[in-house]
Design goal:
heterodimer, A: 437 residues, D-Maltodextrin-Binding Protein, domain 2, six-stranded mixed beta sheet, 10 strands, B: 3% strand
Chain lengths: 437, 294
């Protein structure tokens, strides 16, 4: 009796230890298999803020993707976009990626995924399915340029072009033509400011609408491969010809063309400035069409909005025909989870996504559209024509930078726009962050 | 009871599981993080040993020095201000408002219970320059000062952060110090008054020395809290304009999680820990010296 109780007494701490250890371990093991795996379902993980992709997929599941959906029903989940890259890193390091998910926001991180063999090579997969021709060439080349190695790793669920949207009425009343050169744009801004109109609506707080101008200016002066050279280490942002671009934008800021306190204006506020007729030009991507086409937000009228390509810089190596473009946040497929079910889904997405996204959500994607809707709003038509006619595209300023340089660049965009940072200071900060690698 | 607690095995059984869970959730990440300080890489590409590269990088990184400088400036200025204002408020409660201080105490303490993000939004609106002009700029406009972009200029945003944190925290320090002041026996103050001490002299010779222990704990609380400031800055300025209001904590967070550089991020975290430790030891030592004097 005594030995038995002594033994059991000895056992208790051991059991307690084991129990606690098991609990802790099971807590660590967590999520594995919940989001990943390819067991009879097709899992998709997206950002909460983006409802277009998931609603398009759901429509497809009941239509073109019916067969794929019957074999492997769509299971979706979403998390907030603010922590997106961090979450993806975590999931990828645990091998728990979903069958399909939105790609990393920073191209540099995507490259790490690609190098780590986490992401499916879609060039090969689409070739095998005979669906390689289902992507719009401009969109395909944009995604390929983004991740470097010449193959396709993400599907362009959006395809956006960027440029200056302008208020036709404000330009006409002030006797201005649509500017085709940078000097004409600066002159137009001066005329507008003198007439008491704010020339540009710009979200300085977010930074990127300012740094986009720097990037575009570089493409216009030095040609479409200028920022690739920086990424390859052949040129530096601190070289005088690059600094000139930042200086050109800083001069707009110093002259007050971005308005008062541009550093406090966020995305929505800048959109509001333009759509209530308080600013004449608005540099933005075509994703803003949803806002332009919304009658409640757009008080200047859809017909009153025009699109101007980013102007040429006289004597520059680039041309006005190279349209800045991006694919928003595209979606990628997991290499590990790619099986017959996922292939069936990929095939029907490639065939049906373009139609459904445009008809249901008014989103221009990078997929071929077979049946365009007949009653497109004028702004959407402009975008479609621009995409169809654009001979080539360029990326944006930070596209090939490290995550840190991207962050530093966008954090300091406001300084450039309100004239508190010179072009040289700005480029020095960004180049230093890029050098750290 | 004594028999049970005297038994080593019983102690082990009672404490073991809790200790194990504690070590798993607290110590393991700390040790893990220490291990990362000599590594380079991230979970996708894998980690490689890089010796003390992260540390040399830290000392040569101008952004890290800017962050240290901001952290120290913020911690020292805010500690002095919030403890001083808290002390003044508590003196006011005890010697001026006396029994009627309840309502004022509640009102001054109120910001402490408000969520940081809500307070930050409130201050963003107060100091707003565009697209709508906030109350502060409207008031300055009446005085003839032109619209000031508070969050677009480094110095101005620094003082807005200080003002917001002071408003948020002085009520807390007032209550903390009030508790210390209330502990001073009334007879002592009475007898000092009879001996002719009043006003500033009474405070300097009687109240201040007797409330010194609680005052020093307030300072330790404050310096440690302010050195680790994160939420107020993120919610109000997000480290901007540029990196002008980026403390070490935010720099660490960005380096690790936004830039995916876990090794260097852990090094920054270690440096912050050492900084907090140095300050605490420094203040503790000065306390001990004071006590031996008594």
């Amino acid at each position: 009796m005594t030995t038995a109780s002594r033994r059991s007494r000895r056992l208790i701490p051991a059991l307690a230890l084991l129990g606690a250890g098991a609990l802790a371990l099971s807590a660590c093991g967590g999520a594995q298999g919940e989001t990943g795996g390819s067991d009879g379902s097709f899992t998709y993980l997206g950002q909460t803020e983006n409802t277009t992709i998931i609603s398009t997929l759901e429509t497809l599941a009941g239509d073109q993707c019916k067969a794929a959906s019957d074999a492997a029903p769509l299971e979706s989940d979403d998390i907030s976009g603010t922590q997106w890259d961090q979450q993806l890193q975590l999931l990828a390091s645990q091998d728990s990626l979903s069958d399909m998910q939105m790609a990393a926001g920073t191209p540099a991180l995507m490259k790490e995924f690609i190098d780590g063999g986490k992401v499916l090579n879609l060039s090969k997969a689409l070739d095998d399915l005979g669906a390689a021709d289902r992507l719009v060439p401009a969109a395909e080349s944009t995604v390929k340029a983004l991740y470097g190695d010449g193959d396709l790793y993400a599907l362009p669920t959006e395809f956006n072009i960027e440029g200056f949207w302008y208020n036709r009425e404000l330009l006409e009343t002030n006797g201005l033509e649509v500017p085709e050169t940078w000097d004409a744009l600066v002159d137009a801004a001066a005329t507008l400011k003198d007439a008491g109109v704010q020339p540009f609506a710009t979200a300085g707080k977010d930074g990127w609408p300012v740094t986009r101008l720097v990037g575009d200016y570089i493409f216009r002066t030095l040609g479409p491969d200028a920022l690739q050279k920086v990424a390859d280490g052949e040129a530096k942002l601190t070289d005088p010809e690059y600094v000139a671009a930042a200086d050109a934008v800083a001069e707009l800021g110093k002259a007050g063309y971005f308005g008062d306190a541009v550093g406090s204006i966020d995305y929505n506020a800048s959109m509001n400035l333009f759509l209530t007729g308080k600013a004449a030009f608005f540099y933005m991507g075509s994703w803003a069409l949803a806002n332009f086409n919304d009658e409640e937000q757009n008080q200047i009228g859809v017909d009153n909005i025009g699109f101007a390509r980013f102007p040429a810089v006289e004597g520059g190596a680039g041309s006005i025909d190279q349209i800045p473009a991006n694919v928003g946040i595209p979606v990628m497929l997991s290499e590990k989870n790619y099986d017959d079910d996922a292939a069936a889904w990929l095939e029907c997405i490639a065939n049906g996504y373009g139609d459904v996204a445009l008809n249901e959500s008014g989103v221009v994607s990078g997929f071929v559209v077979d049946n365009p809707p007949t009653d497109l709003p004028p702004t959407t038509k402009i975008v479609q024509e621009e995409i169809a006619n654009a001979p080539s595209s360029v990326l944006w300023f930070e596209a090939l930078f490290t995550p840190k340089a991207t962050g530093i660049s966008q954090n300091n965009g406001a300084g450039l726009a309100n004239g508190s940072l010179s072009g040289e200071e700005f480029m020095k900060l960004v180049q230093a962050a890029n050098d750290e690698g | 009871m004594h028999k049970v607690l005297g038994d080593k095995r019983a102690i082990f059984v009672l404490l073991g599981p809790a200790l194990l869970v504690y070590s798993l959730v607290m110590l393991v990440p700390i040790v893990w993080s220490l291990f990362y300080t000599v590594q380079d890489g991230n979970p996708i590409t894998g980690f490689t040993f890089n010796g003390f590269d992260n540390f040399t990088r830290f000392f040569q990184d101008p952004a890290a020095w800017d962050a240290i400088f901001f952290t120290l400036k913020y911690a020292l200025i805010l500690t002095v201000l919030q403890v001083a204002f808290g002390y003044l408020l508590s003196l006011m409660y005890v010697f001026w408002l006396r029994k009627g201080s309840g309502l004022i105490r509640t009102v001054v303490f109120f910001p402490v219970v408000l969520p940081t993000v809500a307070v930050a939004l409130l201050f963003q609106r107060l100091f707003e320059a565009a697209p709508t002009v906030g109350p502060v700029n409207s008031f300055l406009g009446i005085l003839g000062v032109q619209n000031l972009d508070w969050f677009g200029t480094p110095d101005a945003s620094f003082w807005v952060i200080i003002a917001m944190d002071l408003w948020r925290s002085m009520g807390f320090y007032a209550v903390l110090l009030y508790a210390g002041l209330v502990d001073i026996p009334d007879e002592l103050i009475e007898s000092a008054r009879i001996d002719g001490a009043a006003g500033w002299k009474l405070i300097r010779t009687i109240v201040l020395p007797l409330s010194l222990p609680v005052l020093l704990s307030s300072i330790i609380f404050s310096i440690n809290g302010t050195l680790k400031v994160f939420d107020t800055v993120v919610a109000l300025t997000n480290g901007g304009p540029g990196n002008a209001t980026t403390p070490l904590t935010l720099y660490m967070f960005r380096t690790s999680f936004a830039y995916g550089d876990y090794g260097y991020g852990s090094t920054i975290a270690l440096m912050l820990t050492i900084l907090c430790l140095l300050f605490t030891v420094f203040i503790f030592r000065s306390t001990r010296r004071d006590l031996t004097k008594d």
